[in-house]
Design goal:
Elements lengths: L1 H18 L27 E5 L5 E3 L13 E3 L10 E9 L5 E7 L5 E3 L13 E3 L9 E6 L4 E5 L5 E4 L11 E4 L9 E3 L1
Antiparallel strand pairs: 1-4, 1-12, 2-3, 4-5, 5-8, 6-7, 8-9, 10-11
């Protein structure tokens, strides 16, 4: 009888404690950080990808929709919906090191920033557009803050979004992936 009463009292105490929100921190799993906020983190806002070194923006050739496997170049910034230089950054999740991951999608044609195949690619690989896919593809990018902008780092390759050539690209220069450096054209702003 005493044991039954004790069990009833303990059960009632546990229910009361859980009802008022008291939890033990000893067994709580670490929580992941809240989704990032700030420039480039709102998929409802389209951004220009402005290169600090060249003063140009990521661009799909022409003014209309791009095409599957079509190039992504840089061009004089327009910033209006008349051109195709606006990009959505869709928050996907986190790397094992809690770095936020994004899929970058062109606002005009709905295609995503892509490189060939599905895994890591070598430096100088040209960047293009393709149908947006999931984690099995190589379309996820990290934003790594630098002194006045971001490196846009391909998660599978660990390479940065780059303008072909060394800090020299003009209009229609192709975007590639290359080893990240603060001394080349790898710093991007989201405007």
């Amino acid at each position: 009888m005493f044991m039954r009463r004790l069990a009833t009292v303990l059960t009632g105490t546990l229910i009361t404690i859980s009802a008022i929100g008291v939890t033990s921190t000893a067994s709580a799993a670490p929580s992941k950080p809240a989704p990032p906020t700030g420039p480039g983190t709102d998929a409802l806002v389209a951004y220009l990808l402005y290169n600090d070194t060249t003063g140009k923006c990521a661009d799909v050739p022409g003014f209309g929709a791009g095409r599957v496997d079509g190039p992504i170049n840089q061009y004089t910034c327009d910033g209006t919906a008349n051109d195709n230089q606006l990009w959505y950054f869709h928050f996907i999740g986190y790397t094992p090191n809690w770095e936020p991951l994004y899929q970058i999608q062109n606002a005009k044609d709905g295609l995503c920033v892509d490189v060939p195949n599905f895994g890591a690619v070598p430096a100088t690989t040209k960047v293009s557009e393709y149908y947006c896919r999931g984690a099995e593809d190589n379309q996820f990018y990290r934003l790594s803050w630098r002194y006045d902008g971001y490196w846009i780092v391909n998660d599978k390759s660990g390479l940065c979004l780059d303008v072909d050539g060394f800090a020299t690209g003009g209009n229609d220069a192709r975007l590639t992936l290359y080893y990240c450096s603060d001394y080349d054209d790898h710093i991007w702003q989201l405007l």
